[in-house]
Amino acid sequence: MDRYELRRLDYSLSEDHRALQAAYQDFFATRCPIETVRAAEESGFDKNLWERLCAMGATTMALPESAGGDGATLVDLTLVAEEIGRRLAPVPWIDHICAARLLARFGLAEADVAAGTTLVALDPQQQAASGARLIPAGSVADRLILRDGDDIVVVSFASRPARVDNIGKLPMAWVDPTAADSRTVLASGPDALAEYQRALDEWRLLTGAALVGLVEETMTIAVEFAKTRYTLGVPISTLQAISHPLANIAITVQSGRNLARRAAWFLDNEPDERPELAPSVFVFMAEEAARAATMCVHVQGGLGVSAEAAATAYLVRARGWAIAGGDPGATATRIARLVAAREGRS
């Protein structure tokens, strides 16, 4: 078996991957404590954290070298996304880099977009929408990329749309393309729609990876609590009603992580071979994240459901981030069609 064939089966991290992962773990642990997350809930965006993240190269790394970036792989990007989820970082990094990578594929890379000084985002809904639509980063993006029929357009507003309060605490807003102050058609036709679909797959892949990090940190909070809370003279972590669900969550975390890395590798190297993998990460974690976070809150009892509890902050985002791109069921339907089409050809 040659090295390329082996890599289709082996998704362990290299030393470079581990160094990248450690760098972003340290960055978010230092720069994004739960107090920072809470302080940003009103707007859904921490501008200072965003600028520091951009200065670290998190936006330029995502672009190909031909577009002025560092040529990071999608596996690299899943590692950053996981750390964003682990710390609930209030920055639209996933939205921005997916939109920036789409612009680069259209040959429209710009230095200010690569650097993150101009913030771009896209409409991640799986089904084409008409009229106004909710966009996760709609209230903070300078430019928005949308599908309008067979056209892919970029719109901007003299005054950004107002943020809509949402369970995921995102900078979400209703965006009406017909009310835009500027509208430019980037590309049209089947090839343009295929590129947009690629951006949607990347968005779902990275959002799924972020949910993996979110769930793992929620589990850690619950485990540490269970080790120190006693009942009948023993830690509650020794009770099967606590330990078994937490063990199941650990399995979910590792399963989601492995699936994300596998999907990232195929999307980068053999995108037509397993196109269902990237959306599968999102559908799997969208369901499992809410279930796991709910269980972790349950472990803490009344403390877990208090507004001040960190576990509660994770729970609402586990539910909100999973539906930020619309109904996960629409993505599941696409997965079914992709698999049916492949099986029909075999």
CATH uppermost class of the domain at 193-345: Mainly Alpha
**How does CATH name the architecture of the domain at 193-345?**
Up-down Bundle
Give me the side-by-side strand order of the main sheet. Answer: 1-3-4-6
Which range does the strand content fall in? Answer: 5-15%
Radius of gyration: 20 Å
Overall description:
The mean pLDDT is 90. This protein has a four-stranded mixed beta sheet with strand order 1-3-4-6. Strand 3 (143-148) and strand 4 form a beta hairpin. The radius of gyration is 20 Å and the shape is globular. It is 56% helix and 9% strand. Helix 6 runs antiparallel to helix 8 (190-228), helix 8 runs antiparallel to helix 11 (310-322) and helix 10 (277-300) packs antiparallel against helix 11. The protein has a domain at 193-345: Butyryl-CoA Dehydrogenase, subunit A, domain 3. The chain has helices spanning 3-7, 15-31, 34-39, 47-55, 74-87, 93-105, 111-115, 190-228, 240-269, 277-300, 310-322, 328-345, and strands at 120-122, 133-135, 143-148, 151-156, 173-175, 182-188, 230-231, 234-235. It is an alpha+beta fold.
